[in-house]
Amino acid sequence: MGLFGTGLRRICAVVAAGTAAEMAKLVRSALEQARTVELRLDWLNSDAQRSQFLRWLRMYQPRNATFLATCRRREGGGRLAGGVDRELYWLIQAREAGCQWCDLEVETLRKLPGQSVREYPVPSRVMLSMHDFQRTPNLPRSVNPPANGGVDAVKIAAEARTIQDSVRLLRLARKSKSFVAVPMGEAGLPARILALREGSALAYAPVATATAPGQVSLHDIKHLYRAHALTRRTQVYGVIGNPVGHSLSPLLHNTGFVARRIDAVYLPFLVHDLRDFLAAVPELGVRGFSVTHPHKQAILKYLKDCDPLAAEIGAVNTVVVRRNGSLYGGNTDYLGLLRALEKKLRIKGSRILVFGAGGAARAAVFALARSGASVVICARRVKAARQLARAFGAESLPRAALRTESFDAILNATPVGMHPHVGVSPLAPSELHCRVVMDMINRPQKTQLLKIAARKGIATVQGIEMLIAQGVAQWEIWFGKRAPEAPMRRAVLAVLRAEEDSRTH
Questions:
Q1: In 325-434, where does DSSP find H-type helix?
Q2: Of 25, 222, 296, 344, which residue is the catalytic one?
Q3: Are the CB atoms for 117 and 126 separated by under 8 Å?
Q4: Which of 32, 147, 329, 421 would give a disulfide with 316, using CB separation of 3.0 to 4.6 Å?
Q5: Any residues with CB less than 8 A from the CB of 436 and at least 6 apart, and which?
Q6: pLDDT at 488
Q7: Is 111 designated active site?
Q8: What is the pLDDT of residue 208?
Q9: Tens of pLDDT along 133-155?
Q10: Is the pLDDT at 309 greater than 70, yes or no?
Q11: Which one of 232, 267, 286 terminates a domain?
């Protein structure tokens, strides 16, 4: 039995709001999904709001819940103005309201007589926290609560600039007792989800507003990633890219794992440097990963073997990590593209423009040329477009020619218009002379390019169709069995519909 219990009790819902009424509402919401709740008292707008909320909490007193009070001063990265005495005052009030735990920054402990909190009637159990919002500092081999400080647990929250930074924090969690590891920032997000399986006593997740960089919502950490259920036997998969926060692949694949009852999790890895990620693969237990922009071509030099089609394309979107640690690459983008586009167009004999010259464009040009299309390439990087055209026997065109040239289909293979920059289009209305427009971007579902095409009466193909088809093909490479396509599709389309509804209301 851990400090906070087992399973779901180790997911700590973070409640932070400006008013007592909103805090109370969030506490009720948190307890619908979790039994451990951090109360960020420093986020409340005033002492009056703090007093009002704690009076409510004293009356509310839900059963079987653990409350951890935090009233972090500005010096420690919080919002409370004033000195140590104010922080201690509100932590003492939190104990009166029924909080069993409190979070005390190391900066506060150092200012107390004898560097001990034992003389103060704060909540009976104390977590000592250290925050570094700039980097992951040099870490000791292990961390244990100081013997004389009245401390029951230690938390280190540090900005992970690289995957290796977050791995160092997980390593510390494995070797420490009564320890909480909190990798911050988007690069640290996968490690946040894996922290519990590595021995961290808690994993924090906000109910509403995020209180630290890279936090995963309470709903997602519990339902999408199932962080509380992961063990050292859990297989790790993921998607690597930059950016990667928009990716729907975690939803697609994690839904499939649940449907097939496979003990695996799929995580989004923000990767600036491929070597940084690949060095972490053995320690994180990664068994396979998807590759997206901008790494589809660069990953090739790290592969031991490669599917002949992927080698011919010159871009990889699927990697298998073999038992000996070597990497095998494949490409399912071309399958996804063909399956999506064939619903609206007979590809053989069609004249198709591919806009872009990166890894996604390479797979598209390969697939279309191999299927008998006459392929034309146009890109902002004119030299890259010419090189790609030469590689696959295609034609290249300057951008200015698009105002007069016509095609059977136009395919966007650039990231322009991708979430969160949803209001821009890579092509203007005057450049769309075709019967079909397809956008390889899958989020948003209806990109600005597709909206422009629809207004001109042009048939459209959404990138989500390609995402689902290529994801299903990836699944079958990794597991050697049919993917549960129906629930995977339903989950992704439901999220996209919800996003569309929120934008239109």
A1: 333-341, 359-370, 382-392
A2: 296
A3: yes
A4: 329
A5: 341, 344, 345, 408, 409, 410, 458, 459, 460, 461
A6: 97
A7: no
A8: 85
A9: 999 999 999 998 887 778 999 99
A10: yes
A11: 232
Residue 341 lies in a domain: yes
Question: Do 222 and 355 have their domain in common?
Answer: no
Share of the chain above pLDDT 90, in %: 88
Burial letters 30-58, b for 16+ CB under 10 A, else e? bbebbbbbbbbbbbbeeeebbebbbeebe
Q: Would residue 152 be called left, alpha or beta, if left means φ above 0 and alpha means ψ between -120 and 50 degrees?
A: alpha
Q: Which domain does 444 fall in, by range? A: 336-466
User: For the chain, how are helix, strand and coil distributed in percent, rounded to 5?
Assistant: 40, 20, 40
Asked whether residue 91 falls in the same domain as residue 228, the answer is: yes
Give the integer Cα–Cα distance in Å for 371 and 223. Answer: 41
- State the DSSP code for 311: H
What are 102's strand-pairing partners?
A: 69, 126
Q: Are residues 61 and 203 in the same domain?
A: yes
Beta bridge partners of 128: 104, 154
Q: Are 333 and 310 in contact (CB under 8 A)?
A: no
In a domain, 459, yes or no: yes
pTM above 0.85, yes or no: yes
Nearest Cα neighbor of 470 from 292, 279, 267 is: 292
Domain boundary among 216, 232, 248: 232
Instruction: Give the count of domains, the chain.
Output: 2
> Which tokens in the block code for residue 264?
């695996």
